[in-house]
Amino acid sequence: MKRSILERYGDARLPRYTSYPTAPRFSASIGAGTYGDWLSQIEGDDPISLYVHIPFCRSMCWYCGCHTTITLKDQPILDYLDVLKREISLVADAMPRKPEIATIHFGGGTPTIMEPNEFLDLDFHLRSRFAFVEKTELAVEIDPRTLTDEMISALGRAGVTRASLGVQSFDPKVQKAINRIQTPKQTRAATEGLRAAGVGSINFDLIYGLPHQTVASAIETAETAISMRPDRFAVFGYAHVPTFKKHQRLIDEAALADAAGRHAQAEVIAATLLDAGYRQIGLDHFALPGDSLSIAAKTGSLHRNFQGYTTDACETLIGFGASAIGRSAHGYVQNEVAIGRYAQSVATGQLATAKGYRLTADDRLRAEIIEQVMCDFSVDLAAICRSHGVSADTIVNGNPQLRRLLADEIVTLENGVLLLRGEERFLVRAVAACFDAYLAQAGRTHSKAA
Ligand code: SF4
Question: Are 385 and 297 contained in the same domain?
Answer without folding.
Answer: no
